[in-house]
């Protein structure tokens, strides 16, 4: 991304934004965190154990493939992206027996399998978030669906399409290597069995076509703070909420957390997870200490049950209704529609005028470098009213003036994912809830039964780490690095070497030259959306369309077609993405966070490094124009794809 200009703002507000951003700046950037999977501490590593799996039941399930076996399609991940790819393959006419999904968890759902903290709902309207509602006829119970409902819906989706016995659970892909003689991918995996899935064995199979669908946030992390592993009380990360400690159940969104009664609870982090979990913890903990570096922007939620009449008359109105509603939300967020165009979703998301800063907009196509100050000024003007109202809302809800001031965010709306709640701010009016604001510095350390912040000890019995995940931009968007897989393509070329030497190099963000019959999800060189399911819908549709065009279901099983983009096509695409990189200069004014890789993305770079980073810029006009472009490309004959019969 290009990040060179300062935002023209009112001096007082600009100064405040800069001061708040400076508090979070750390020279170590992303290295201030450690990923739990790779921690030196066994106790911290165990915080990401699969505590939800029924291992004895999983041990009895027949494997869909064994060592030495072969499959036409190997999909890595059984979250929403993996499920969409598999179901769209079935809809395209491919056989379920030709598909194997590999999933490291003990069940399907991806982020909705792992994340089960109390109060959890999707933050985007469920009518556009849940996939394939039109095909299934399913009616979500609420405008914003609970995690349990989403997880159960995805299980039913897998069953509906006959894929329940095609999943290899508790299995992690370690490497993919292209076999030029057999024209297949050799896939090396580690599979867990037995108690806790700790009995490891290796599995080696061959796949004609491989699809990486590992999700955006597979790696929970915690800050590198002295004494964390030595904390002797109960401790867990919100990515693995431990109901054995808190009481309650992951199947009940508003569980009775009676295990926290009489306990002093330390809750570290005030991001999107905290906004939903904190109000539930506050109902039961004797004392709740919430440790904050940077406050979230908290907007009204407006949750409500689905009204059957509204559903039939105004939502599910006929063929194509979900796609139309999904695109309507995206176009409002990208400012690609006039203000008087009907707003189908009409929630707080859809009224964020400046959030296009990280999504793209047709209003700024071909943005020249000398126009960046003017562009940033326009974003600020769009954001000013909303941002001021969001700050003002805090003072009208939180009764303690000092607490309200500490909960007030000072950064542009687009710099962090905005949050929505009608209960979070209200929780700070409870006498047992205490905000410990660290003024951007974070916690000093941990004792055996206490948290230390700003030189003061806070005794706690239970420690809840709500400290997020590794950035999706890790490794410059390299699919191998993001998925933690060693990928070796034609002529021994490593994908990570290709990315590190040239920057992002794909066609449309979904496949890359010298890595035939390999497809993946990406934000780099593709297009993001506030609604992640919209991104997945666009990319899975594109991937399955490419596969089906060159390798149709009618092709005899003894024939193989090798598909990859030409080097020229992907270089042309990289230059096209680079030409829109100036649009994303909007992040230059942001407080360090996952969008900027904790500030690493904003550090001074050489011209060569800047160009490499710019190549990975998303499509700069928004996801709907991106989708229309892809549709036109497919209609024109898939230009730039090299296909050959093995």
Automatic annotation (TrEMBL):
Keywords: FAD, Flavoprotein, NADP, Oxidoreductase. InterPro entries: FAD-binding_Monooxygenases, FAD/NAD-bd_sf, Flavin_mOase-like. The keyword Flavoprotein applies. It comes from the Eukaryota. GO terms for molecular function: flavin adenine dinucleotide binding; N,N-dimethylaniline monooxygenase activity; NADP binding. The keyword Cell cycle does not apply. Gene3D superfamilies: FAD/NAD(P)-binding domain. Its cofactor is FAD. Belongs to the FAD-binding monooxygenase family. This is FAD/NAD(P)-binding domain-containing protein. It comes from Karstenula rhodostoma CBS 690.94. The lineage of its organism: Eukaryota, Fungi, Dikarya, Ascomycota, Pezizomycotina.
